[in-house]
Amino acid sequence: MACKGMPVRSQPAKVPQIGIIPRYATSDSEMKWFLVPGFNAFHIINAWEDDHGNIVIIAPNASNMENYFYNMDKSHFFLEKLRINMKTGEIERAVLSERSLEMGSINPIYAGKKSRYVYMAVGEHISKKAGVVKIDLELGCEVASRNYGRDCFGGEALFVGKDATGGLECDEDDGFVVSYIHNEITNESQFVVMDAKSP
Questions:
Q1: Is pLDDT of 72 > 60?
Q2: How many CA atoms lie within 13 A of 44 on its CB side?
Q3: What is the pLDDT of residues 177-197, one digit of tens each?
Q4: What CA–CA distance (Å, rounded) separates 14 from 150?
């Protein structure tokens, strides 16, 4: 059976929640729930436990869920960092970028661990990304960016790490950011490989 529109719907009267289950839980009844008003994340870029037992989450947050479901061209995602105190339930929130950012990645070696860099696709239209930005989570700001050019749009910004051979240590941002880019005027596509240290 074919249907029209989104397969899910928004309930604006409800407050979003984040559920966190202890690493060594033996039952889902050990999950703790935290109310996070206005947190509308579709993709968690990374999350980890810090030295104080807090949970840190990095995710793009949809500023208006109604736009996402009913007027996608007006969707806006800003990158947010949450720190959840597992003892007190207190949640600290910080906006890392007001630009519309989605479809991001990190060095996969750092998945579930403290990471410093995030690579995000940038663009107001959900399916047309006009460039890529590099966010430094320690500084809490954008440190590098690349615009794909007029009438050129890409997709997800994927990080590909350099192969650490011979026992040599690599920096977290030693690698490449890759994406497909389509030129809407010439109708040509390119696979673009960028230096992750300065895309």
A1: no
A2: 11
A3: 999 888 888 999 999 899 898
A4: 40
